Amino acid sequence: MNNVLGFPILTLVTFLPTLGAVLIALFLKKEQSKAIKYSAFAVAFIDFLVSVPLWFYYSPGTWKMQFQEAHDWIPSLGVKYAVGIDGISLLLILLTTLLGFIAILSSFKAIKEREKEYYVLLLLLQTGMMGVFVAEDFFLFYVFWEVMLVPMYFLIGVWGGPRKLYAAIKFFLYTLAGSVLMLVAILALYFYNHQVTGVWTFNIQAYHQLAPYIAANAGKTFQYLITLAFFIGFAIKVPMFPFHTWLPDAHVEAPTAGSVILAGVLLKMGTYGFIRFLLPILPDATKVFLPYFVFLAIVGIIYGALVALVQKDMKKLVAYSSVSHLGLCMLGVFALNPNGINGAIIQMINHGVSTGALFLIVGIVYERKHTRMISEYGGLSKIMPIYAVIFMLMTLSSIGLPGLNGFIGEFTILAGAFQAKPIWAIIATSGMVLGAAYMLWLYQRVMFNKVSDENVELNKKGILSDLNGREIAYFMPLVIAAFWIGLYPKPFFKILEKPVNHLVEQVQPDFFKREQVKFDLNKVKPVVHEGGEEEHE
Asked: What is the mean predicted confidence (pLDDT) over 19-32?
C-alpha cells in the first residue's frame, strides 16, 4: 500500500461528514437551530482541513495511486473496500471539501424549515461525492455513485422551488437510468475478467491492465455495447447534449447550496467517469465512436450558449452555461492528448469555482428580493458595490479573461483540440464568444441601467443590502482560487502531469513517440553569403 501518512486519511476525509451527520441526527434537537448550523459547518470545515495535507504529501513524480487502503469486504464476490487517489482525483477531492463547507455556510439564512434534516443530507451527500473520487473498486464506486442520488433528490424535492417535485423526480430518473446502464457495463467487465483470468475482482486497476486483451480478443459488439453503456451513464451526469434536459430544472428548483454542489461537484463525476474508466479500459472502442462523441460535445458548447443568451431567469442562464462549459471539458477529454485532458481537468475545477460562485451570487439577491428575473434588477452596482465587484470577478472568470482561472483551462483545451483537429478548436471558439456575450449581457442588465424605485426602497429598508461578513467570507476562498489558478497554474499542471501522460499512453500507446520531435540547434550549420549575412539551413 502506498500511504506516506501511515493512517487512513482517505477513509477519514470520506466518512467524517457521515459521522458528523449521525451525531447531529442523534444528539441535537430540531429546535437547536444555531447548534445544528454551526455543528454542520464545523464538520464540513474540519473535513476540508483534513483534506489539505493530501495536497502537501502527494508525490507528483508518479502516476500510481497514493494514500491507498484495501480491506476485504465481500470476499466471495471479490469485492474490496479499496481507496486511493492520483493527481486527478486529488484536485476533485479538494474542490469537494471546499465547496462542501461553503454550501453549508451559504445556507444559514436561506433555510428556515427542517434545518436538521437539511444539514444532515448535505453532509451525507459529501460522503457520497468523496467516495466516487477515492474508490479503487468498481463495486465500491457504484455504491457511492448511487448513495449520492438520495440526498440530492431530497434536497431538491423538499427545499426546492415551486416545481421541486418534478425537478427532483426528473433528476432521479435520468441519473438512475444512466446508473443502470453503467451497472450492466461493470458486470459485463466483471464476468469477462473472470473468464480471462479466473479471478473474481472489481479492482479498477485490474481492468485497466486487461484493456489491451479486451481490444485484441473481445468481440467488437461486446466492446461497442459496453462503451455505449458507459458513455450514456456518464454523459447523463455531465450532462452532455442531448442528455442535459434534467439539469436546468434541477438547478432552477434546487436551493442555492444544492445548485452549488450540483454544478461544482456532481457534474464532474460524469467527466471523471470518462477519464477514469471509459478511456483507459476501452480505448479502441472509444476511438471508433470518437467523431460522434466530439460532435455531441461541440453541439453542447454552442447549444448551451445560445439557449443561455435568451434566458430571462438568472439561475436558468447560469444552468445553461454549465451545459456549454462542460461540453468544452468533454471536447478536451476527447482530444485524447495531454493538453486536452489537462485542460479539461483544470476547467472542471474552474467551473466548480466560477459557476459555484455564480449560483451563490444569484442566491444572494434571491434571498433578498425573492425573484431571479433579470428584468427585476438593474443598477445594483450603485447600492451593492461589494456584490458588484465579486459578481464582475466571477463573470470575467467564467468567460476566460487572462489572469483568472477560466483562461487557463479554456486555452489549454483549445490547444489540445487544435492539436487533435484544428476544426474542433475553431468551432468551439464560437461557443466561447457566445459565452462572453451572455455573461456580460447578464452583468450589464443586473448591475447597470437605472435603479428602480422599488429597489431603492428595499435598500433603504436594509432588505436589498450589500454583502455581509458571512457572505464575504464564503466568497473569499473562491476568489483566491480564481486568481491562484489564473496567475500561477504550475502546481496544478505538475500534479496532473504523470497521471494524464499515463492515461494518454493507455489510450494512444505511440502518442509520445509520434509527438517527440526535437531540434538540436547546435547541429544547424550557418551558411555565410558573400554579403556577410548568415542563413541557417
From this structure: 91
Q: Helix 283-309 and helix 490-507: axis angle, to 10°? A: 130
Query: What is the percentage of the chain residues whose pLDDT exceeds 70?
Result: 95
Peptide bond into 239 cis (omega under 30): yes
For 449-484, give the secondary structure using H, E and C.
CCCCHHHHHHHHCCCCCCCCHHHHHHHHHHHHHHHH
Q: What is the pTM of this model?
A: 0.90
pLDDT attached to residue 418: 93
Spatial distance between the Cα atoms of 146 and 144, rounded to a whole number of angstroms: 5
* 93 membership: H or E segment, kind and range: helix 87-105
What grid cell was written down for 463? 432588505
pLDDT in the model for residue 489:
93
Give every CB contact of residue 393 below 8 A, 6+ residues apart in sequence: 404, 479, 482
The residue ranges of every structural domain in the chain are 9-536
Which value, to the nearest 10 degrees, does the dihedral of the CA atoms of residues 508, 326, 250, 127 take? 60
Q: Is 233 exposed, middle or buried (0-12, 13-18, 19+ CB in 10 A)?
A: buried
Q: Residue 215: how many CA atoms within 13 Å on its side-chain side?
A: 21
Residue position matching grid coordinates 486527478: 88
Q: What angle do CA 481, 485, 488 make, to 5 degrees?
A: 125
Question: What whole-number distance in Å separates Cα of residue 243 and Cα of residue 232?
Answer: 8
* Whole-angstrom distance, CA of residue 116 vs CA of residue 32: 9
Contact 331, 428 (CB under 8 A): yes
By C-alpha distance, which of 272, 251, 79 is closest to 156? 251
The confidence band for 533, taking pLDDT boundaries of 50, 70 and 90, is low
- Residue 271 near residue 344 (C-beta atoms within 8 A): yes
CA distance 442 to 14: 38
| Coarse DSSP helix, strand, coil percentages of the chain, rounded to the nearest 5 percent | 75, 5, 20
294-342 pLDDT, tens per residue? 999 999 999 999 999 999 889 999 999 999 999 999 999 999 999 999 9
What grid cell was written down for 180?
443502470
> 509 pLDDT exceeds 90?
no
CA 51 to the chain's CA centroid:
17
Q: What is the DSSP letter of 264?
A: I
Largest CA distance in the chain: 94
Neighbours of 196 (CB within 10 A): 13
